[in-house]
Specification:
methylmalonyl-CoA epimerase activity, 8-stranded mixed sheet, metal ion binding, 23% helix
Length: 137
């Protein structure tokens, strides 16, 4: 684990939440992105070495919609930057953690991602993220 990459916060109204967080953090949202595979629209804020990710459901079928319906708005997950996501996935699996996806998948902000079941991490949904290398990076 290299650092806390971001904290994900589930919100009902992304535009209103962006305005709120721009005021709170005194920093502009630097990126919004839709991730169809997760039925979510995201917005990102940079805070030092870490980020805040706001997440709004695109429909009433995705995990963010289900989270908000069950628990309301709030912290959804903590993401950790890793150098080798497959190695970290194997390490978690060997320790008995349940992976919510068996292979890394493309997530927001140019990342490969894997989620670890919250019941295996004291009730916290954990996301592993690895930056996708680009030919010029």
């Amino acid at each position: 684990m290299e650092k806390i990459e971001h904290i994900g916060i589930a919100v009902r109204d992304l535009d209103a939440a962006i305005k709120n967080y721009e005021q709170i953090l005194q920093s502009p949202c630097y990126k919004t992105e839709t991730v169809e595979s997760e039925s979510v629209k995201t917005a990102f804020f940079k805070i030092g070495e870490s980020k805040i990710e706001l997440l709004q459901a695109l429909n009433n079928e995705g995990p963010i919609y289900q989270f908000i319906e069950k628990r309301g708005e709030g912290i959804h997950h903590i993401a950790y930057e890793v150098a080798d996501i497959k190695k970290e996935m194997a390490r978690f699996k060997a320790a008995g953690s349940r992976l919510l996806n068996e292979e890394p998948k493309k997530g927001a902000d140019n990342k490969l991602v894997c989620f670890i079941h919250p019941k295996d991490n004291n009730g916290v949904l954990t996301e592993l993220v690895q930056t996708i290398s680009t030919p010029n990076s």
